[in-house]
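Attaching the record inline, Q. Sequence:
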Amino acid sequence: MATFKTESITIKEKEEEISIVDKVNFESFNEDILGLGSIGTESRQVNAISVIFDLEGFTNFCKQIDPQLAVPEYLSEFLKWIFIEVKKELIEETYEKGYKTYANLPFLSKFLGDGILFLWDTHEMDDIEIRNVVVSMYEICKKYTTDFFPKISKNIISPPTKLRCGIARGAIYSVGNGNDFVGPCINMSARLQKLNSLSFCFSRRGINPDLFSDTYVKDFLVKKVDIRGIGSTELVCLLKSEYAKLSPVEKEKFTD
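Structure, as predicted:
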């Protein structure tokens, strides 16, 4: 995200004062303001897990009376909370000088306006660490409903009611100076976080729910579904409890 401020100057033309946009300021509006560096730089491939959190109902939340009073306070509390929770979920043991973790922290975090993108580099991660990331994100979604939402509702009117999450694994590619990335798995995670009325869904590619611990393996089932713009028979993992609550029409979109 980039901001740009238009700067005007007043000149005299044929004895008339007119306001114009400063030439230097006008010409400075170009791709450089995106802060991506040289976009023509050769792209670097990274094997990654893409996690996208989305705040359900955020658009309507912003339509309330005087949203400028509620939105900043809500986002401040939400972003503080989610970064704390990501760290907490990944801590296995605490020592005086640091932490033993279930997996590394994400190497890229990006605010999306109504949610946030986290990227993990899987190059040195084993299957256990990858599964730890998935179940940690699942726990965060549950905690939003059970912990964060009840607390924030005491101070903020009609905050987003649900935190949705889509997860996918695959190759991503750096853009410019490497401060941003693109790739199919990012697109996939974006699609999965808003798949029907599900709150949590991940792509089966490279993530096997059968290898989850007994605590979690019973919670998921695998279905085929049409993912818009990606594929008509994609395998995804969703919660059994949420699938059971889908309408008959929604269930028809999923096949075994």
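The longest strand covers residues 162-175. The helical segments are 23-27, 58-61, 67-90, 127-152, 184-192, 214-217, 240-245, 248-251.

More tomorrow.
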